Amino acid sequence: MSEVLGAQHPDAAAADGARRGTAIGSPGPLRPIFSGSYQKLWLLLLFGWLVSYADRTVTGPVVAWMIHDKGGFIGDSAHPAALGGLIGSMFFTGYMLTQYAGGRLGDRFGHREMLVLSLLWAGVLTLVSGLATGLVVFVVARVLTGLGEGVFYSNDRVLVITHTPPRRRTIGLGVAVSGLSIGLTVAIVATPYMIDWGTSAGFGARAWSMPLFLFGTFSLLVGVATWLFFRARGDRPLRLGAPLLRLIGYSVPCAAAITVLYLVSDKAGWTAWETAIGSGVLALVMIGFVVRDLKRTGKAETLLTKDLWLLYIAFIAVMWNLWFFSFWSVEIVAETAHSSLTSAALTAAFNAGAGIIGFPVGGWLADRRVRQGKGRKSLAIICAVAHTLLAVAFGVSLAVGHPSLLLLGLILFTSGLFFNALQPIVHGILGDQVPDADRGAVFGVFNLIAEIGAVASPVVSGVLRDSTGSWAPGVFTAAGIMAVSVPLYALVRERIPGAART
């Protein structure tokens, strides 16, 4: 891994010097690596989050359509929910394994370059997913999509923090990541209509591929727009060849390992539980590899502190809840309220859409606290507690039977406000825990560990549904995991950026 990632590239080191006003090995100042408006940067990254999350979220509604119409790769399965959840978990296994690599490659080759590569990669592989003719090919395409999308997160967070004034950093993080909610909402609401369009266009049993073709094309367009944006607002051209080769060199063995896991589990007749454990073992191996690498390079004292471990582990609950509700919310509402897939998608979208408000408001409140010289973790605790209680209420409404769409939509929206506000607050706390030069790596480690929740959540929840006949146990499990994160946030010793207080 060290050979794949390597040390910081001279150009990236020069860029670090440029951001501080002087060049390495040069007596005079350089123009900044990014010279545009930071508000425009937020907007660009918002679109990046939008297409990135639409590409990954589309799998859930597509799986729900296959289950309801008994078509595609899943319709004739004896345990369709478990199989659908397993596909989601395979995607997030890939997504998880490139988190740390993405941050390190960004620190070396440039964060702009990694963002552009991530968007173009995801667009191409989403199109390939739509062309898949069998379950194995579909799984491999989704795994490769996840590997490419995994490098977006850490580089996006670093660009926002680096190029936004400290007093507005957290709202910048919130505005950019609100694209996540827009992408979730678009994918959840639009996918059933896109599938209907595919049916009308003569796709027949392959109507499920239409949303993958459309979202993949949109991702490619946003990737090209991102490349043009950075090319016009930087002091050096974007060089994509070297980081692309490194990313391919890293992704191919990861994709091979995940695919072998899937094929072995299928051949041996493993249950979804056993396959999920296999994904967990891959995650633990990667985490162990990263920890060893950080100790070898002398970064452990910076990136593996007690406070950072608390944040890393606590955020597993966020990823678990995010991908429980994002992956299964359409199916939960359709099954519990006995509604059509379209009505269920519109109701489930209340949860995803709440982030359009929750993300920037959470960032704004956190920045306000920082300007007052106060910590942000109290806000994180409030949001985590509120979401836990509302998730329990959602589970109770499912357990008592036949809840109305209005009640489900109201709970999903309210819980979504607190849940989405929590995320930029934690991102801001995390970014201020380390020096500027280590931010790509810290966000990579952070999401590598947190994505354990995303890997486990879809398949565990699907298995619980198939074994109990109800979605309520999965909801209560998600709420309980979020409750565990509350004391972890309370133990964090937060650092407040001094420049933001003035």
TrEMBL record:
Membrane topology category: Multi-pass membrane protein
Gene Ontology CC terms, in alphabetical order: plasma membrane
Pfam families in the record: MFS_1
Region feature Disordered, mapped onto this chain: 1-20
Key words, A-Z: Membrane, Transmembrane, Transmembrane helix
GO molecular function, one term: transmembrane transporter activity
PANTHER family reported in the protein's UniProt record: FI19708P1-RELATED, SOLUTE CARRIER FAMILY 17
The protein's name in its UniProt record: Major facilitator superfamily MFS_1
